[in-house]
Write a structure and sequence with these properties.
The chain is 44% helix and 18% strand. It contains 20 helices and 16 strands.
Length: 557
């Protein structure tokens, strides 16, 4: 019996995992208590893993180093949503441990799994237990223990799955949202499906698919949400500090990274045999530079006062790419030469919203949002097409911020991810985009604009549910205000009255009603009249957004 994983076996294991995940996408999506059509975990994980499967089918590999490196790079570029980014980091850590290896036995592969978990935890600013992080951590710990006791490769993976399944069942107790719903974590479920398929492939119990699974996942799913909400704290570090050090000794760059993580935030450390490239937000750039010079002399140094308050994700995997993990062959992308200092890339769905962002000054628009989160590569391509040296990215959805952050070390352009969690926040920020003010003032102004926006969403219940004391029936109108459920209604007029009463808490001066693809202009004006009647002094505007999923998106300022 074979007791190691070589390149061919690893390739087959990932292809089988891709097929298994595709077969269970809807089941994963339906692990959902909140009945709003959402950016589904199963869909995001499926699209992320399929990117790796596509690259694997193009090539053959001589070593597990090459195969795992291909998977790692493809997953990073294809990562969609928080769950997809976490999955990419789990495999990026695996690739780092397998670097230089032709094959991997139980000890090596279990250690690689542990490295993957470590990379994922480091990348998440506030790791939440009761999520895919918990499941993968306990699975890897069991694998390391089994391998250390002399277990075979097959039994090591079996132990990981057993521990992972126990951890998955316990997510309902660790995560308050899941406990209230009585369901397990969707991301954790997807991870267990991947591990089971990998073991079945290794044992020869699952035939490797010759082609991609014939499962359509490009259309929005009817329900589902990613409960693994990795929200980040507001950053309070003013100085964006970037530098390149030419290495003159063998000091481990991981020590520099650890030092910087204690000193500030938004840390990215990329290194190879010759240089160390660093990006950090800190209030004391002098300390960062003093520590860095102990590794070698400076090649470049840039310090800017940003005072940018935004969600920051540490890219634990960027250094692996610099250390020699091979990227898959991809088409050459055109990188626009800078014609100006600042450019803007924004994410939205709906022709009306796209046109509005372009009219307001956005250079490029990435199509996506709820129900279909764009991948890191989707965002990266538009960043590279933007003719500016610094590109501001407006994700306009909390589940896209993490994928956008992964672009920072993947391009020579400076990328700043603005913390816009809704489309109305993105519109307000772009209205306040004025490069003539200088970066520091511009960022402060835009951040203030984002903070001043309250967002209401009107959509439909995708299924029956009992959420937070609300009995919800499929097809009812749902009203959400700043992400919280306001209520469910059978009458749209009643819903708008309830929203208007809620808006009164904000003393609004400007209210903009963006109506969606299934709403007529007459209907939109009629419903907006309810708001106007409640706030005669406010400036109320009605705009055709033509967005999917949401009948109305309402900006209150």
């Amino acid at each position: 019996m074979r007791d190691y994983i070589d390149a061919a076996a690893f390739k087959d294991m990932i292809l089988c995992a891709d097929a298994a995940l595709h077969a269970n996408i809807q089941m994963i999506n339906e692990l959902n208590v909140f009945p709003v059509p959402d950016g589904d975990t199963g869909t995001n994980m499926g699209l992320t893993l399929s990117n790796a499967a596509t690259e694997l089918r193009k090539r053959s590999f001589d070593s597990i180093e090459d195969a795992s490196g291909c998977v790692s790079a493809a997953l990073l570029r294809g990562a969609r949503g928080n769950s997809g980014v976490i999955l990419s980091l789990l495999f990026r850590g695996i690739a780092k441990r397998l670097k230089g290896m032709e094959t991997a036995g139980a000890v090596e592969f279990s250690g690689a799994m542990a490295d993957g978990v470590d990379a994922a935890y480091k990348a998440v600013m506030k790791p939440a237990e009761g999520t895919i992080l918990t499941v993968s951590r306990l699975a890897s710990e069991a694998a390391v223990e089994a391998a250390g006791a002399g277990a075979s490769m097959e039994n090591t993976l079996a132990c990981a799955i057993e521990a992972g399944e126990e951890a998955l069942e316990d997510t309902v107790n660790l995560n308050p949202v899941l406990k209230k719903a009585g369901v397990v974590d969707a991301g954790g479920k997807g991870y267990i499906i991947i591990l089971k398929a990998m073991l079945a492939s290794f044992k020869g119990e699952m035939e490797t698919p010759a082609e991609a699974p014939d499962v359509k996942i490009s259309e929005p799913a009817s329900s589902g949400a990613d409960f693994a909400e990795y929200n980040t704290d507001d950053i309070r570090f003013s100085y964006c500090t970037e530098f390149i050090v030419e290495r003159e000794n063998t000091k481990d760059p991981a020590l520099l990274r650890a030092f910087l993580e204690d000193l500030g935030d938004c840390v990215v450390v990329v290194d190879d045999d010759e240089i160390i490239k660093v990006h950090v937000h800190t209030n004391d750039p002098g300390k960062a530079l003093s520590e860095a010079v102990t590794y070698g002399h400076f090649v470049t140094v840039k310090i800017e006062n940003m005072k940018l308050q935004h969600s920051a994700i540490t890219n634990a995997g960027s250094s692996e790419a610099a250390q020699g993990i091979k990227e898959p062959e991809v088409e050459e992308e055109t990188i626009a030469e800078p014609e100006k200092e600042f450019g803007v890339v924004t994410v939205c769905a709906g022709s009306g919203m796209e046109n509005l962002f372009l009219e307001l000054g956005a250079d490029r628009v990435v199509t996506g949002g709820q129900t279909m989160n764009p991948s890191t590569d989707d965002i990266l391509k538009e960043i590279n097409k933007t003719p500016a040296s610094t590109v501001l990215v407006f994700p306009n959805n909390k589940n896209i911020i993490m994928a956008a952050e992964q672009c920072v070390p993947l391009t020579d352009k400076k990328v700043i991810v603005m913390p816009t969690k809704t489309v109305p926040q993105g519109v307000s920020a772009l209205l306040n985009f004025n490069p003539d003010d200088g970066e520091e003032v511009m960022m402060e102004t835009m951040k203030e604009a984002i903070d001043n926006v309250h967002t209401a969403m009107v959509t439909y219940a995708a299924r029956d549910s009992d959420f937070d004391g609300h009995v919800i029936h499929a097809g009812e109108f749902l009203a959400l205000l700043d992400g919280a459920l306001l209520g469910s209604y059978t009458n749209i007029k009643t819903l708008f009255k309830e929203l208007s009463w809620a808006f009164d808490n904000f003393s609004p001066e400007f209210i903009t009603v963006y109506y969606g693809e299934n709403v007529t202009e007459s209907e939109a004006n009629d419903n907006a009249a309810t708001i106007t009647g409640c706030f005669p002094e406010a400036e109320v505007s009605v705009v055709c957004g033509n967005q999917p999923v949401y009948y109305y998106m309402i900006s209150v300022e």
